[in-house]
Fold each of these.
Amino acid sequence: MPTERLSRAWLLIVVLGASGNTQPQNAKNMIVSRADLCLTEGAVEQLPDRRLSVAVPKMRAYVNLETSQYLEARFTYSGPTENQAPLGSGELRRQFGLKLHAQDACNLVYVMWRIAPASEIVVSVKSNPGQHSSSECSNHGYTNIKAAHSAPVPPLTPGQTRTLRAEMNGQALEVFVDNSPVWEGNVGREALSFHGPVGIRSDNARLELELKARRQGAGGQMPACRSGPGESD
């Protein structure tokens, strides 16, 4: 290969490596335990087989470890919770989802599997510049993002086990259900104006799940868990 062509090829490799489209060599998937979660609302129980259990109307949590913006949940849906709680808008919805760049209660990206009243994947950016607690932003600042490519998701019935996975590289987001792509698109620059861990959220759904995140760097502990009413998104 001529020297000029070799130099161009090497430059391309360097650019691609720096672009964030390749995973770090030390990236490693890990199973998230209850001890790795910072719970900001509701309850999550640890099951003996490394799974987690959710049986409360509202659950909010984030992974309190250094990870990339990758999260996978293999979950069994067991139906609605005994009691139901409306969203801040007053709507009664049953759903489970993943959180990315969860900086605080007011600024984060959601990948939600809406179970009822309709089965669909909805990606939202919640952005409230200058606000950081739920008392400041409440349920304001949501923008639903239109996918460049999407596919329908099957209805969830009690007893079914599914896998929901999301990965964000820069503004690009990909969502998979059972390893099949269901949502792909650009979440916009606004979503990169805040930074934070990955996490989970549920509303009115009983679940048992195995949660996997991807370690980044040394995989060390994050700052102290930010829990309490003001931290719940």
Note: The mean pLDDT is 87.
Amino acid sequence: MKFLTLLYIEDDVDIQEIYREFLNDYVDIVHLANDGEAGYSMYLEYNPDIILLDINMPKLDGLSLAEKIRKTDKDVQIIITTAYGEQENLLRAIELYLVKYILKPIDFNELKEALKKAINELAIIVTPEESKKEIFYLDENTVWHRDTEKLYRYNSEVKLTKNERRLLTLVSRDENKVFTFFDIFNHIAQDDFDKEYDPNQVRALVKLLRKKIPKESIINIYGEGYRFNPIRIENCANQY
């Protein structure tokens, strides 16, 4: 069994102590550091699943630390806190594919939702076999195999681009979840850290994919994002 670990980097030890007990309710082990350099050393030593860090820290600021980590690690879930709502920091944070950017004073409910989101993502990273045993029927003649990331129509494979596959893989994780434009962009750009966030690229990708699948298989939720909408036909599972 894998223990869920979190590294909490915060130079204000009083604030750190306030949230430490709260964090222990959601993860198995919490490691603590009080500056950016110590935090990076502990990241290398413990390889945590989640990192919670403040932007304004001595020796190495939080955004610079996150950028350093992201050069080699795209899986660790990073949550950043800050006392400042500066636009420049927000734009830099978007490019780091963060779970959440939280303004101080930290709201416990907001932190809770960020932790739950990170843990949900980790379930896919840590145990992909648990989330890749599904066959989804998009209509009676179109089936999406999530295990092999292949799409079939009338028993013939439909060729998908890399980003089309990534989009279908993401939204088929949870039929009840609405994936935001940022969720989708973050996933399709997972190996291109320099790519700037652009929701129009997501819209264009969905439009292209809908030419290969029934249009209603991906539903647009106005003002929020997209949701997967397959048809389950369990007794046809051995046709493909």
Note: The radius of gyration is 20 Å.
Amino acid sequence: MEQIVPGIWHWTALHPNIKISVHSYYLEEEGILLDPITPDDGVDWFTDHGPPSDVLLTNRHHYRSTGEFVERFGVAVRCARPGLHEFARGEPVEPFDFGDELRGGIVALEVGAICPDETAFHIRGHGALALADGAVRREPGGPLVFVPDHFMDEPEATRQGLRTAYRGLADLDFRHLLLAHGEPFVETGREALAEFAR
């Protein structure tokens, strides 16, 4: 667990299904988890740092270890309305709509392009923006790149749609870019996203 800026914790863990390391975040003061995967040391860490009350999913595929947090802490889980069809096995997921202001003053913004529920969260209180799957960082210190083409139905059109969405997001006021797949950009996130979108 690494506190990348005051109030934002970041960690990685191996996703049991896709067998790659994925990235998660915890907004300690707000009690909000973003795309949580269980840390290597388990969920006990959160007992002394909260505990969490909410999970926000940047898209429907990032439920990850959310069930464990529901069972342990009774967290509320939110996903964009177009992704709710994914949760047909009784997962306790509630919808939000794009443009909604969620707990902690977090605004849910539509990205789309790669999937209908692809969401960015503008975490204004921390000067941060969280992204889902369209842009990834393959190595620490590296640039943003597109997710590989085999994750896109129509790669050329999807990349163009993502660029358009990211150009709009880069106009927002934020410094830190929190990625579901890759190390976060601390202090340089807005510049990194603007450059990538160009």
Note: The first strand starts at residue 2 and ends at 5.
Amino acid sequence: MSVAPVVAGIDVGGPRKGYHAVALAGGRYASQFSSTDPAAILAWCQHIGAQHVGVDAPCRWSTDGRRRPAEAALQAAGIACFASPTRAAALAHEAAARARDQAGWYGWMFEGERLYAELLKRYVLYAGELPAGPSCFETFPQAVACALAGQLVSAKQKRRVRRSLLMQAGIDIRDLTNIDKVDAALCALAAHAFTRGRFVRYGVADDGFVIVPDAAPPAVQIAR
């Protein structure tokens, strides 16, 4: 008897919000976990036996201050996405914000960096070749939503749109009580598609890939 593959998706927030993770087994909702400690997230992923982990945070910083190739490709496809800065620029921004006694904007990216550092102790970062063992990769909920719908969908109405798309994908959303958990579930769907080899990748290995499911036929006309 075959065992349904377990995968996980992780939404990355700032230092106070932390990480929200959702697990799928055979493409169906299985469990969830939240923590501000990346080591606890890794331990949970191992405990549930997650084969692949999709993370909503950049796996690489920009090397030249411009968009990474994956971000440029998403933008060219009509999917608005954040442009990662260089690590030095992000550090300078955070330092300037602290000097003004303000919250910096890049804290969540450094939390993503901390998470990848932990995950890479047990998972291999996808670099273009299908891994033989457990792996992790960067994904993007808005791109996943567009792939599930088979068209560009509204990011401004993401709470309604993304929950609807999860339901159409057969995901029980009753325990997904906030947008962070919804986004984690979308990341997990990307990991489920990755497990089946039904995914597309944006970017290049040196600057990091963004993985999303194969484009599907429109489930419903949600965009408008």
Note: The first strand starts at residue 6 and ends at 12.
